[in-house]
Predict the 3D structure of the following.
Amino acid sequence: MTIVAYARVSSTGQSLDVQLEKIGALKPSKVFQEKLSGVDRDRPELQKAIEYCREGDVFVVTKIDRLARSTRDLLNIIHELSAKSVEFKVLDQSIDTTTPTGKLTLGILASVAEFENNIRKERQADGIAKARRDGKQLGRHPKMTEDTIQTIRALRSEGLMIKDIIQQTGMSKASVYRALA
């Protein structure tokens, strides 16, 4: 029996250390890791991990949400592993799909995880809608303000070279040329 582990975080700023420490205690034969969103099903390391698995292997993750963000995706991955006669275990939730109870628990937890994700999306959408109604600026604030445009034009009319205007204003070359157009 070979233990094949998969660890994932959503962004490059996050650390895999906690997951790798938990997985390391099992002494896995192979650990696949990546820094990509769980929403994206096209994760190269996940595909490699599944392809690497052979009959009788155990596929391990620390938490369900490290593997999939939707019940459908999770069940598809588990079905793919089952078709290869690979067992599936989740360390933090003590799930083992080799037992009927483990399969039931997995289905329930996957549904709860998807429900939580949908609730979070609804709250986020509500917050964005409220901010728009309140006239709040969403996203990054523009660097190119009307004052900046006037400053760029004034500096150019004084005979400054574009490179000097860029240095003084901190704007890009393209932005300076747009302001002068």
Summary: The first helix runs from residue 17 to 24. The helical segments are 17-24, 44-52, 71-83, 100-133, 146-157, 162-169, 173-180.
